[in-house]
Amino acid sequence: MKAAYLEGNNQPYIVKEVSTPVPTGQEVLIKLEFSSFNQRDIRVQKGIYAVAPLPEGGLAIGSDGYGKVVKVAENADPMWMGREVVINPGRNWGDNPDAFGPDFKIMGCPDQGTFAEYIAVDQKYIRPKPLYLTDEEAAALPLAGLTTYRAVFTKGRVKAGEKVLITGIGAGTALLALQYALAAGAEVYVTSGTERKLERAIEMGAKAGFNYKAEDWAAQANALTNGFDVVLDSASGKGFAKLIEVLKPGGRLVFWGGTDGPIESIVPAHIYWKNLSILGTTLGSNQEFADMLSYSEKHNIKPVIDKVFPSLAHAQEAAEYLASGAQFGKIVMANKV
Ligand SMILES: NC(=O)c1ccc[n+]([C@@H]2O[C@H](COP(=O)([O-])OP(=O)(O)OC[C@H]3O[C@@H](n4cnc5c(N)ncnc54)[C@H](OP(=O)(O)O)[C@@H]3O)[C@@H](O)[C@H]2O)c1
């Protein structure tokens, strides 16, 4: 098969012939139609994804995909044959719903991912493609949907009427968080470094937006809202301290990323004196993946897609576009040659 392949850190994606995986045990072989990019792919390519570095010799990475089952191994259920499926990017979550166990992995490094024509996946990690989604949306939903479903509901416990702030709304994850929080009945506010993205989030139902590049955005937010019950963040970095300023006493700050780098300059008393809860989160369990899919279908939640690249040969272009930060939503690639 052909794959969009990374031969080493800081190398561009190249289309390369690699061996087609052979499904064994309870695995099925999926012919991938579309895949989508995540920040993780940038970090793996740059060699800064410490928990799962690129293996010697390189790999076809990619953690999101949609396709059709074309082969079923000896112990997999034959009913999967021919079915269109989405894939849970998480593996081996373990028994503890609060945190993953020692064997947890994310599809697409260190094992083969979705930037290829085929992938073999254990049947327990596939689900029928939700019919209300387009093929491109089905490839864009899994990783961002699972992460933000857990952030909004399991960790954030967002309730109707609460005031919620979502940072960096251009992010694929942030836009799904916006939709889940709105579906929960929250009053949602957003931040972005781009005015047009703030306007687009307001068109989607956000109440107002703040440009995080403005020195006084936190004061503006407090003046307008009197503070937030919940803040959902994926940027961390220097701006994290401001998120503590805009939380109400007793508020929850849920975060799942470090796009803007390490957290700096937090005054401890600003957290404990306000009785804040600061909650880290990640992808979720297989049960949360199933719950996310049914909640998304019930509330007609569709990932916002910024751009679809037409073939595996465009992987490098797609990765550079993601790294530019110009996108509003997910970047999808057709898995054609
Ligand atoms: N823990 C997990 O399991 C998990 C799962 C998924 C993602 N993540 C992490 O979550 C983060 C987002 O991932 P993604 O794939 O959704 O990213 P993405 O689609 O590439 O989004 C990047 C966005 O980050 C925002 N941003 C950049 N600098 C910012 C700042 N200083 N303050 C606020 N926002 C800023 C920008 O928003 P604007 O353009 O609106 O300014 C930009 O569009 C990444 O760090 C990723 O590694 C973690």
From TrEMBL:
Gene Ontology molecular function terms on file: oxidoreductase activity
Superkingdom per UniProt: Bacteria
InterPro entries registered for this protein in UniProt: ADH-like_C, ADH-like_N, ER, GroES-like_sf, NAD(P)-bd_dom_sf, Zinc_ADH-like
One Pfam family cited in the UniProt record for this chain: ADH_zinc_N
Residue intervals of the Enoyl reductase (ER) domain: 8-333
PANTHER family named among the record's database cross-references: DEHYDROGENASE, PUTATIVE (AFU_ORTHOLOGUE AFUA_2G13270)-RELATED, PTHR45033
Protein name: Alcohol dehydrogenase
Organism: Pedobacter hiemivivus
